[in-house]
Amino acid sequence: MIRRRVVVSGNVQGVFFRDTCRRMANGLGVAGWVRNLPDGTVEAVFEGEPEAVQRMVEWAHEGPPMASVDAVSVHEEEPEGLRGFETL
Predict the structure, then answer these.
(1) What's the pLDDT score for residue 53?
(2) Residue 3: active-site member
(3) Helices (H) and strands (E) in the chain, counts
């Protein structure tokens, strides 16, 4: 199991980023959460099998069709044993 925290900037709020992220994570069996931040970015935590987490990180660089991602910062963290994926 691995854990990655990402912060995504660009036009990423109000474009179904969080909902699409949650659906993709659930489909891949990735645990964690996603939330909008006051500065207009989106922050997410992905925990799970390395391949599935990597796919989520790669997806964050694109986002849903209406999003325009400018940058993604990725931080390695210690897994916490999260279960399920939620939108905060």
Answers:
(1) 98
(2) no
(3) 2, 5
Tokens encoding 70: 């400018």
Q: Could you report the per-residue pLDDT of 23-50, keeping only the tens digit for each?
A: 999 999 999 999 999 999 999 999 999 9
Q: Per the residue annotation, which of 3, 4, 18, 22 is the catalytic one?
A: 18
18 is catalytic: yes
Class of domain 2-80: alpha beta
Q: For residue 87, give the nearest of 54, 43, 40 by alpha carbon.
A: 43
Strand positions, DSSP E, 1-88: 2-11, 31-36, 42-48, 68-77, 85-87
Short-list 52, 48, 67, 83, CA closest to 8: 67
Catalytic residue among 4, 5, 23, 36: 36
Q: Residue 77 and residue 62: Cα distance in Å, rounded? A: 22
Is this model's pTM higher than 0.90 or not?
A: yes
